[in-house]
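User: Fold this; tokens only.

Assistant: Input:
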Amino acid sequence: MIVNSARRNLILAFDVYGTLFQIKIPDIPEHMMNEWRQKQLEFTWRLALMEKWLDFDEVTKIAFKYICEKNNLNFNDSILEEWLMLKPFDDVSELKSLCESYDLFILSNGTYKSIQALLKNSNILDLFKKIYSVEEVRTYKPTPKVYKNFMNKHDNSYLISSNA
């Protein structure tokens, strides 16, 4: 395949949670997953507004503990391991054809460690040229600092995110 060099230098930066991966864990009811995800995001927004930092793994744990307490359930650390085993959406298989024409990156609130594990567990880690985590700037999306930092390094790029 002959690729236009201008197109080849174009970066498609994908969000991870809710874009590439389904926010579903077996044995956790959908309403609890939705609550967990909402709390997770709310906590990141509050941290960003307060200019405080906790990594996303810690935010994820705190949000899950909150949901367990709210629903009178016992917190179990092992469920956090399931967060690293989320299933990709079906169309993620199309990334293989995209990486022939574009440079694929990750731009995520997640930690490097967790993102790498998630991508590796789904056999798609090698499709991405680089992973950018908000750990680098120590604040969360949608803070402009996150995007400015990324765009200062990669101005020829588009963010692809599909969160409802």
